[in-house]
Specification:
With about 475 residues, the chain is an alpha+beta fold. It folds into 3 domains: about 1-70 and about 385-435, no CATH class; about 75-205 and about 370, Bacterial polysaccharide co-polymerase-like, CATH 3.30.1890; about 220-355. The protein is built from 16 helices and 8 strands. It has a 4-stranded antiparallel sheet with strand order 1-8-7-6, with no helix packed on it. The longest helix is centred in the C-terminal third of the chain and has 39 residues, at about 325-365. It is rod-shaped, with a radius of gyration of 52 Å. The termini are close together. Residues about 1-30, about 95-115 and about 435-465 have low confidence and may be disordered.
Length: about 475
């Protein structure tokens, strides 16, 4: 159903039809500066209520906007420049990172390194790398903090909140981090320093570092060889009860000589008793038993019945090897013992070299020296609410003043002025070409209210669609 309303339903551009608005009592055509100032003051005083309302509304709107803007906190940590004598290895590492594992993020510092601008520029390049950004994103869960899912957008958001600068005179590096949380801002600034220190140590390829890496590999291999040698030696000594073959040989030969002497004395006594008593005499039988036991002990010490060419476990479960096996045991024992001692000597020498290489590497790696730690900020850095409110209110007041003077000048211009007639024609044509939608209220037969959208037609009538 279509409804037509009169031209009074059209929206018109705002005009100064307020009863508070009053024109200046006199046209502004005086050439004197004092008269112009007086005319200006009269015009402003005559429309003081409108200017007051405009300023008040602007104050309320800008205050709402200023307090809706999230608060940001800023903290800064400063680093001393690295020592020039210790940056050669890091320069080589940075120049080689164009095709390295760190990829494009660290490749950007290669030109600065090759140009040898300054050692501080290397630190700046590392801090701006993708490796550092990804580490901080993971550490502080910035996906949730920034409400961003894509890693590229996260890196851009982090870069916008981070500023790394170098003082060209002192070469002091400043890392400034901005965040909505003061604690997180200070923690992120400290994390930048820690990650820089870790990457600098990992990327250093100095001679001392290469030597240290080589010695680490050799120490690992020598440790394994020493463990195997000690294991073989201990198993051999345990299997053959060979604690110290040289000392054992001396002790066993001495014991055998003692037994041999006792057996000779017992045999002499036995032969003497046989001249007097019969073999069934208790004394003769006692001496005979003693001679037999001494002979058994001598056979045990001598290894009677054992192989003289193979080293095997003792068949009689003795706590010591036989004299027959001592030469064989001594050769293998000396070989295993020598292997273990050699590995021990190599390990000791490599350990000394390794410690010296670590000390030299520590001297050559540029150490990150913190000049000023990042404090927890106590005051916000953004937004400047008072400044926003002042600028917004002053701008609204200035715009209202300009509009007031423009409106006054327009009204005071003669209706037959060609410039005014041309401006009215242009305005009417633009108004006819740009459709305006106005909300019209129509009463239904049942008494309820219905709202329709009307479109202004150039002919002056409005067509309202239900």
């Amino acid at each position: 159903m279509m409804y037509r309303s009169g031209a009074s339903s059209r929206r018109s551009l705002p005009e100064l039809s307020d009863p508070d608005f009053q024109k200046a009592p006199e046209p502004i055509d005086s050439p004197e500066r004092s008269d112009q100032l007086l005319t200006f003051l009269r015009l402003m005083w005559a429309n003081r209520r409108i200017m007051f309302r405009v300023s008040l509304y602007a104050l309320l709107v800008t205050a709402g906007i200023a307090f809706l803007i999230p608060t940001r906190y800023e903290t800064t940590t400063r680093l001393m420049p690295p020592d020039n004598q210790s940056t050669s290895g890091l320069m080589m590492a940075a120049s080689a990172m164009t095709g390295g594992a760190a990829g494009g993020g660290l490749a950007g510092i290669a030109s600065d390194v090759l140009g040898l601008k300054s050692s501080s520029d290397i630190f700046v390049g590392v801090l701006g790398s993708r490796t550092v950004a990804d580490k901080l994103i993971e550490q502080f869960n910035l996906k949730k903090v920034y409400s961003v899912d894509r890693m590229e957008d996260l890196r851009k958001a982090l870069a916008q909140r981070t500023s790394v600068a170098v003082d060209r005179k002192s070469q002091i590096i400043s890392i400034t981090v901005t965040d909505h949380s003061p604690e997180r801002a200070a923690a992120m600034a400290q994390a930048y320093v820690q990650e820089l220190n870790r990457l600098v140590a990992d990327l250093s390829t100095s001679a001392a570092r290469r030597e240290r890496v080589f010695l680490e590999g050799r120490l690992e291999q020598v440790n394994k060889d020493l463990e195997e040698a000690e294991k073989d030696f201990s198993q051999f000594a345990s299997k053959n009860t060979a604690v110290d073959v040289k000392e054992q040989a001396k002790a066993m030969v001495g014991a055998a000589a003692t037994l041999q002497g006792e057996m000779i004395a017992a045999q002499s006594q036995y032969e003497g008793l046989r001249q007097i008593y019969t073999d069934s005499n208790p004394r003769v039988r006692t001496i005979k038993a003693r001679i037999d036991e001494l002979q058994r002990q001598l056979d045990k010490l001598g290894g009677k019945g054992e192989s003289s060419t193979e080293v095997a476990s003792n068949p009689n479960d003795s706590f010591y090897p036989s004299i027959r096996k001592l030469p064989l045991l001594g050769v293998e024992y000396a070989d295993l013992y020598r292997r273990a001692r050699i590995q021990e000597a190599v390990l000791e020498a490599l350990t000394k070299e390794y410690e010296l290489a670590k000390v030299q590497e520590a001297k050559e790696i540029p150490t990150v020296k913190v000049l000023d730690t990042a404090p927890i900020p106590e005051r916000k850095s953004f937004p400047p609410r008072l400044l926003i409110i002042f600028v917004g209110t002053a701008s609204a007041f200035a715009v209202a003043t300009i509009w007031l003077f423009a409106k006054t000048g327009w009204d005071q211009t003669d209706q037959h002025d060609e410039r005014k007639i041309f401006a009215q024609e242009v305005f009417s044509d633009m108004r006819a070409r740009l459709p305006q939608f106005a909300q019209s209220r129509v009463d239904k037969p049942n008494g309820s209210k219905a709202f329709f959208w009307s479109r202004a037609r150039p002919g002056g009538s409005n067509e309202v669609d239900k």
